[in-house]
Design a protein that fits this description.
Layout: E1 10-16, E2 21-27, E3 33-40, H1 43-54, E4 58-65, H2 72-80, E5 84-88, H3 93-99, H4 103-116, E6 120-121, H5 128-159, H6 164-177, H7 185-207
Parallel strand pairs: 1-4, 4-5
Antiparallel strand pairs: 1-2, 2-3, 5-6
């Protein structure tokens, strides 16, 4: 961790984000690295990081990696503090393989990218109507996938059911279950009752007679 220099300098920050710790770097107006330091990924850590960057001079902007995941909290904090934030995209894979994984270098590269405004994009905001639609779409997608898995499990249980009676009963219930939403209220009640009977029958057969 380097010591702060002239307070009137214009500096640019870069952050390599992780789950528990964020690594920050600062470059000066000539794109020379002034310092690198790590901070906890907490609100207090964000405050310490901002104070550390501003101790080198006037903070012009900060390049942050993964603003949609590990860097989301830091993004909101810096924007609330009035700091311009740029999302830094993934560095060149060939260069990453050549030099290996180094958090300090990743933070410095994020600062260099923000300084030169290359490999940067405007980070997405996590509020408003667009974010609400994104959450609803993600929830629906998850629910549809869970329903598909549940039906597959039921189908596998039907195939593996012991006895012709259980298999026949499960198939009679499973097929109309797929289009239950299009049936009348009385049909739904009957099908739900048959479904409960099927479950109880399989449960009784699996546990066997009580001793």
């Amino acid at each position: 961790m380097e010591q702060p220099t002239n307070q009137t300098n214009t500096v640019v920050g870069g952050v390599d984000t992780h789950k528990d710790l964020h690594v920050a770097a600062v470059v000066d107006a000539q794109d020379h690295v002034l310092g690198t330091h790590c901070f906890p990924a907490t609100r207090q850590g964000y405050r310490q990081m901002l104070q550390w960057m501003q101790s080198f001079g006037v903070l012009r902007q900060v390049g942050v990696e993964s603003t949609g995941t590990y860097g989301a909290g830091l993004l909101r904090y810096l924007q609330a503090a009035g700091v311009e934030v740029l999302e830094v995209t993934t560095p060149d894979k060939h260069d990453r393989r050549r030099r290996g994984k180094d958090d300090d270098l990743d933070a410095q590269n994020a600062a260099h990218a923000a300084f030169a405004r290359r490999r940067v994009v405007t980070p997405k905001t996590r509020d408003g109507m667009i974010e609400s639609l994104r959450v609803l779409k993600a929830c629906r997608k998850t629910a549809v996938a869970a329903r598909k898995i549940a039906l597959q499990v039921i189908q596998n249980t039907t195939v593996c059911a012991i006895g012709d009676r259980n298999r026949r009963l499960c198939r009679q219930v499973l097929r109309p279950r797929l289009s239950l939403s299009h049936r009348s209220t009385s049909e739904r009640v009957c099908l739900r009752g048959a479904w409960a009977t099927c479950n109880q029958s399989i449960r009784n057969h699996s546990t066997g007679p009580s001793a």
